[in-house]
Every structure is written in C-alpha cells, then in structure tokens.
Amino acid sequence: MRTTLTVNGKDHSLDADPRTSLLDALRNHLNLTGTKKGCDHGQCGACTVMINGRRINSCLSLACMHDGDEITTIEGLGDEHNLSDMQQNFVKHDGFQCGYCTPGQICSATAMLEEFKAGWPSNVSGSLTASPELTDAEISERMSGNICRCAAYPNIVDAIRETAEEKS
Amino acid sequence: MTDGINISTAELTMNEPDDRNRLDVTVQGLIHTGMDRPDGPLKVSGRATYAHEDQPAGMMTGVLVRAPVAGGQITGLNAEAVRKLDGVRDVFHGKTFLRNPAQGTANEAPVQPDGKISYIGQPVALVVADTFEQARHAAHMIELQITPEDAVTDLDVAEIETPKDKQSSQGDLDAALSDAAYTVDETYRTSGHSSSAMEPHAAIAQWDGGKLTLRGSYQMLKYNVNELADALGVDAENVHILAPYVGGGFGSKLGISHEAVAAAHAARELGAPVAVVLSRQQVLEATMRRSETVQHIKLAADADGRMTGIGHDSTVSQLLDESFAEPVSQATPFLYRGENREIGMHIKRINRMCAGSVRAPGEAVGITALEIAMDELADVSGIDPVELRKRNIPEVDPSDGREFSSHKLAEALDDGAKTFGWADREAGKTDGEWLIGYGMSSATRVNMLGESHARVTLNEDGSLLVETDMTDIGTGTYAILTQIAGEMLGVPADRVTVRLGDSSLPKAAGSGGSWGAASSGGSVFVACEALRKKIAETMGVEERDLTLQDGVATTNNRRADLPEFTKNGPFTVEGTINKGDTQTDRRQATFGAFFAEVGVNSVTGETRVRRMHGSFAAGRILNAKTARSQCLGGMTFGIGMALTEELMFDKRDGHLVNNDLAEYHVPVNLDVPQLTVNFVQERDPWANPMQAKGIGELGICGAGASIINAIYDACGVRVRDLPATMDKILPGLPDM
Ligand code: FES
Ligand code: FES
C-alpha cells in the first residue's frame, strides 16, 4: 500500500503492508530508529511522535492513516550537534539513564508544553477553565503516559520546568 | 599490531587496601563532578543505536511462539501450512531453543529442552518472514501439538527443598527470644517482580561464513559470548556481540536470552540476517522474574533496644533444575547486632518463568522485610526508629567477626534524618482526606569486585581512547570511565573517547551486582597509572611527583605537552584488576537510609508518596550526577515494590495474568515526588584503588520499607504483604 509520509519536513514514499504501524514504518522502513518501541500497545509512551504538532503513540496508529500529515520525530527536533532546548535540558538534568524512553519523553514534553500554553487542563488542575500554573504536579501528571523504568522522573520534571521557564 | 605502537600490560590484584587516595591528589577536576554524560547528546537526539537498530540490508524478522501450557512435550506443529503463508521464510523449533535466559555469569548455555515445556509463555518456536507484520501474523497461525505433562502451578502445593548450605545458626535464638524485653515474630510477603526494562530484549544476527555478529541488548558480554556460542554449538571466537547502548537491564539482560539464540539459529539456517525482538508480553512471560518471598522474621532486644537475636527464614520459588535462589537474607547477618541468629532458606519448585536477578537480588526484598520488622521493634519498644538502628550497628560482622572495610550507616542515618527533618515530623497530621505519616528504613548492599580488563591509549595528539567490552545500561559507564581516565592523565573530558559494548574489546566484569563501576573503572585506573609511570620515567621523576593537567605534564623543573611522549607512536596499556584478599579480609558493604512521607487516603485507602529522601555511603562517588540518578532509579523501584508491583499468577494453569505494562504497574511520573539524595563522604580503601563502591542497587535495598512504615504511622495499618494496595489498607482504616 502506498502512502506519502511527511516526516520532519521531508516526504517519504512508503510502500508497506497496510498492517504496518506508524512506529514500525518509521523504524523499519524509513530507518528513523530514534522513535522507540517499548510495548507496541499504547502503554509506555516510548513511541511518542507529534502529528501536526500533537503528541500521539505511534504504535497505536497505522502508517497508512497519515498520508499528508506533518509528522515530527525526535530526529526532527535536533541532532546531536544541534540540540533543542528541551534536549539540552534533558542532558543537563540527567533526564534519562539508559536513554530508551527518552525520545518519547522529549517529543511528549515538547508537545505537552504547547498543550499547556493553549490552556488545556489536566487531571490535577484545580479548574477546567482557569489557565493552570505549571507546577511539578502538572508536569508529572501530563508526563505520566511516558514510562521511564530507569526512573529519571524527578530529573525529567526539572528539565521540562527549566525549558518552560526559559521560554516564558 | 602496528609498528611504533607501544603496548604493555599492568595488573593489580586487590590483596592490600589502597589508601593512597590518588584521585584526591590528581588535579584535572573531573572526578566526582556531575559531568554530563558524553553519550547524552546521542541519546536525547535519538541517534544512539540500540539492539534493533542499524538494521542490515536484507534483514528478515522472526517472531517467537509461546507455549500455552505449563507442562508438556511438543510433538509437532503445522510448519508446512505456516511456511506457505505470505512472506514466511521458515519455521524453527526444537533443540536450539532455550528454556529460559542464562543466569548472570553462567558462562554456558541454559537448559535447551528440545520441545519440553516448563511454563506458560516459554518460547518454543520461531517464525521468520520478510516483514514483521507477516511474521507476527504467521506466528499466530502456529498450532502446537503437545502431550500434556504434570505441572505445579499452585505454590501452596509445591514441593519444598531446604538446601543444607543455605541454613545457618549461631547461639540460641529461642532462648534469646524468651529472655528478651521486646520481640517481633512476624511473617512478611513480597510479590514477584519484573525488571521490565524499557527496551525489550532484541537481537539482530548476521553470519559471515562461520562467524556470527550479533547486535543485542545484554549486560555482561564476556559471559554472553560463551553462553551464545555454547547454545549454538560453535566456538566462542566465532561469536561477536555488539551492545553499545542498552535500554535498561536491571538484571534481566545479564545472561543470553531467547531472542539471541533464536535469531542466530535462524540466520545461520537461512543465510540472511534475522532480527528477533521480544514483545512486551514475552519480556514479562519469558525473561527473569524476581521470586515472590515469604519471610519469617524474629527479632529479640533487651530493655534498651539492643538486639540479642535475629531469625530470618525465607521461602522463594524457582523452576526445576535451576540453582539460583533469591538470596533474601544475604545482608541480614551483618546489618545489626545480636549474637543469636538463625538464617533459613527454602525453595519451592514451580512451573513459572525462571527466577533470576532483578535489581539487587537478595537485599531488595530481604532488607525491605527486615526493615519493616525493625519498625515493629521500634514500635513495641517505644524507641525512635533512627535511634533503634543506631544502637544496633555492630562493631564487626557478627556472623564471622570480620571487621568492616568501612561503615557509614550511622552517618547516613544522621544525615538523612537531618535533611528530611525527621525530628520535626508531626504526629497525627492530616491534609483534607489524607492521613499523613512518616517512615524510615536502613539500606545496605554487599559490595563486590570482578576481574576486568580495559585498554587505555594515549594518542599522538594527546587525546585518550578507553576500550573495554563493558556495557552502559544507563548506569553512566561512558561518563565515569571518561572521568577516571581524564582525571588520572590530566586530559579534558572532550579529549577522551570511551568505546564500550563490543565483545572484541578487553573483557570487563560487565554490568550487574553493582560491581560495574568498581571493576571496569578499576581496570581503567590501573592502565592509567601505568601510563603515568611511563610519562614519569621519561621525565626522570617518580610518578607521584608528576602533575598532569589539561594535557600538560609538570614536574618540579619541567613542563611537557602530552604529545611529546607519543612522538614514536601512541602508548597503550591494557590494565587488569582482579579481586583479591581484600574481598574476604573485610566485610564490604554500602549503607544508607531512607525517609518517606506518605499520604493515605482515608476514603479509598490509596497511598501516595509525598516526599522521599535517601542518604547513601558508597565510597568515592565517581560522578555525582549519574550516581544520584542511580539512586533515584533504585528508590523508585522501591516505591513500585511497596505500592504497585506484583506479578500475579493464575493458580489453576500457572499463567501470568498481568503480562504487560498496563497491568504490571511500574511507577509513572506522578507516582514519584521530587526525590532527594545525599551522599555521605566515604573512601573505602579495601574496595579498589578508587575507594569507590557500587551504587546501582543500594537505592532499592530497603526503600520500600520506609513507605510501608510511613503508612503505619499515617493510619495504623501494618502491611506485611507487599504491595500495599488499597484492599489491604482499607479494612484497617480508622473511622473518620
Ligand atoms: S510502544 Fe507505543 S506506547 Fe509503548
Ligand atoms: S532512561 Fe531508561 S527507561 Fe527512561
């Protein structure tokens, strides 16, 4: 099945089995292995990418459903010589250990800050309508879809908080 | 060997303590700092290549097929029909497949049962196809013919072994208990746990003639090569393993596992590269579990709370014919005083996936239960829990009279209590519908050293290359080896390159048992010290009179840039460190203390950790940032053990009920508050020439107890069966 995937601003013509998940398309067909598979069932967040700016679990979505979508993966946020602010803060705060959940954490965090800016409430927000304050609990709650078994959580929160502060 | 390359060796066997504290005298200023990980930029940009990456052209994909019963013999399968499916290249089963992964340091293949099934989820066949989608579908179409055999799936009826060498007794515990002013005599239970590293076990196998290259995700390459070669029936020199980045291990990747053997076997038969990745369900069902434990603990203390006796009798489970048994009480003999003691260990044989090492085998669950019992002793004696522990710190290892190499438990307890504000905790505090409580516990873990080799090269341009087959499983090996080499030779970190995770490099002890930093770091230290001697010789001074900093060697009257010493080519030293008498002459251990504040919901019985602190003593801290991260990881495993993690098995057929991350609950971000960690100053001369000890596991050893003890403080419910889920707390909650 032919699909055109626009990944990190570049068009890729994909001819793959219709059962191919977006995650497997990225990893096995486009050689973009920065996006990780931790569970293949939407349970861990390792496969998080952004579709038109919104974070999704790419293991839960078929590649053929994304013809024409703007897909951003970790490779599109910055390379090792030119890291995004979020990536730099993950390094600075040791927001990872083995690094396997990390691309998903960073994609998720990057999109999460946009959701936050747009005023989306979360489960720990006091009000559904008032703009929430970016407390540690807000960051933790909004990042709880991304499991880190190495448990860099406190450092992940520090990295995200610093990135948000730099931005504002 | 290239002409002009100067290669030599240097070796140290730790027979004598080393209190020269060389790393306190060197001046590069790298050691101990919280230097960023050199592998960080690759990891945060998605460029670090894990096992199932760097996929070779023409690679096929294999999907493993699981056994659906806990006991039986496979007599056949519908391979013919499945081979006809779209894209399928072949179906494999039989002799080569492993029953279970190899135990850590096994160095030989695990059982290869030739179709005999020992537990549900055992990988028994492999379907290889051109694509993952085809292989996954075809694997579902496999129909196994099985002759059922008896299986034990209920622990209550499992046979119990009591191995003689695992029982010990000193004095008269019964008499101590009857003479004691205060006693505790309770049974504690911990659940089975899964490491569940985020990177599932994965392998890509590729043969070139008779030589195998395997990209994999393993912790101990020198053993893994031999295990894989043995399983495949080839010579070890024909097996090359690459694991430059490992997406977490926690014990589950110590030994060679199903995916490597199946991929290598299929690739050999098909003459093409084959990848096999375990699904998350397969990781839970077919890699190592930590055994559940039942621990009967008895404590006796006099009127001052000074302990006179300890009994620690544990029961764990394991597959038939596996010798590993969770060493629950391995730290009990030396943590507290008490001249009368009884240590017991029993093993139940059961048809479940293999029990093996999960982060801190032994102390993770053993010290946790002991530290809950200590809280009960504090409660009955009315002595402050911190004070009770301090009163019971032994002068020497009470089990054999050995001195401690270094002992900083008291300092860790004091430091932790002060940082946390233990003395100021408020009794009976509430916050809305939350009951607030405080708890603490001690931490300890045995310390070890393993034979390790590393090659350090001083290049012509004054830069350094460090090479060893050591792995970095998130532990920070890339960082600390950079720091040790840079510190010893006065080379800035950005001029040091560390190559790891390639089995053709000098063999390290591997990552496991918290010995990685000490062992691989020790071999780098030894090589660097030899290089320092060469430089000193050339300058005509004693090595200790040499200062190396920022690529410049200085003595009293001379200065020289490092490249001056390599005019005739690079200098290379292969350094070796071996464990020696210091391992047995002294009791070596790390110590620490945990403090936790929890909220127990008075309506639902849910527990949330609100604050948690750890103070740890593990000798010299090589990198303050990565060491802290290791402790955060351990403490979070402790939160999981205390509150959510539990492998649940169906007694009727033995299957693992919660075989994925939706049902096996590891802590997520919101479950973990902003944990704090302090390190207590320590140098342990008996450990290694860096005076550093292991830090990867200490953070879990007893951590859960601080939470359980805080729950008791909050609501009066004493949970002795972990995890402390709501159902265990709710019935005991006070009326509000
Ligand atoms: S791999 Fe997609 S959520 Fe885990
Ligand atoms: S860094 Fe290892 S799982 Fe997050």
Indicate the topology.
The complex is a heterodimer of chains A (168) and B (736).
Chain A: E1 2-7, E2 10-15, H1 22-29, E3 48-51, E4 54-57, E5 70-72, H2 74-77, H3 85-92, H4 102-117, H5 136-142, H6 153-167
Parallel strand pairs in A: 1-5
Antiparallel strand pairs in A: 1-2, 3-4, 3-5
Chain B: E1 6-14, H1 22-25, H2 40-44, E2 60-66, E3 72-77, H3 79-83, E4 88-93, E5 116-117, E6 123-129, H4 132-140, E7 144-148, E8 160-161, E9 168-170, H5 173-179, E10 182-190, E11 193-194, E12 202-208, E13 211-216, H6 221-232, E14 239-242, H7 258-270, E15 274-277, H8 280-286, E16 289-290, E17 293-301, E18 307-318, H9 332-335, E19 340-349, H10 363-381, H11 385-391, H12 409-420, E20 430-431, E21 434-446, E22 452-458, E23 464-467, H13 477-489, E24 496-499, H14 516-539, E25 547-549, E26 552-554, E27 559-561, E28 571-579, H15 581-585, E29 589-601, E30 607-617, H16 624-643, E31 676-679, H17 703-715, H18 726-729
Parallel strand pairs in B: 1-28, 2-15, 13-14, 18-19, 23-24, 30-31
Antiparallel strand pairs in B: 2-6, 3-5, 3-7, 4-6, 8-19, 9-19, 10-17, 11-16, 12-13, 12-15, 17-18, 20-21, 21-29, 22-23, 22-28, 25-26, 26-27, 29-30
Bound molecules: FE2/S2 (inorganic) cluster (FES) (2 copies).
Short descriptors:
heterodimer; A: 168 residues; alpha+beta; Ubiquitin-like (UB roll); DNA polymerase, domain 1; five-stranded mixed beta sheet; 6 helices; 5 strands; globular; B: 736 residues; Aldehyde Oxidoreductase, domain 4; seven-stranded mixed beta sheet; 25% helix; binds FE2/S2 (inorganic) cluster; metal ion binding (chain A); iron-sulfur (chain A); 2 iron, 2 sulfur cluster binding (chain A); 2Fe-2S ferredoxin-type domain-containing protein (chain A); 2Fe-2S-bd_dom_sf (chain A)
Q: What is the CATH superfamily classification of the largest domain in chain B? A: Aldehyde oxidase/xanthine dehydrogenase, molybdopterin binding domain
Helix content of chain A: 25-40%
CATH superfamily of the largest domain in chain A: [2Fe-2S]-binding domain
Biggest sheet of chain A: strands, sense, closure? 5 strands, mixed
CATH topology of the largest domain in chain B, by name, is Aldehyde Oxidoreductase, domain 4
Bound ligands, named by name, code or SMILES:
FE2/S2 (inorganic) cluster
Largest interface: A-B, 68 and 66 residues
> Strand tally of chain B, please?
31
Provide the structure class of chain A: alpha+beta
What's the shape of chain B? globular
Q: Strand order, main sheet of chain A: write it out.
A: 2-1-5-3-4
Highest-level CATH class of the largest domain in chain A: Mainly Alpha
List unreliable stretches of 5+ residues of chain B: none
CATH structural architecture of the largest domain in chain B = 2-Layer Sandwich
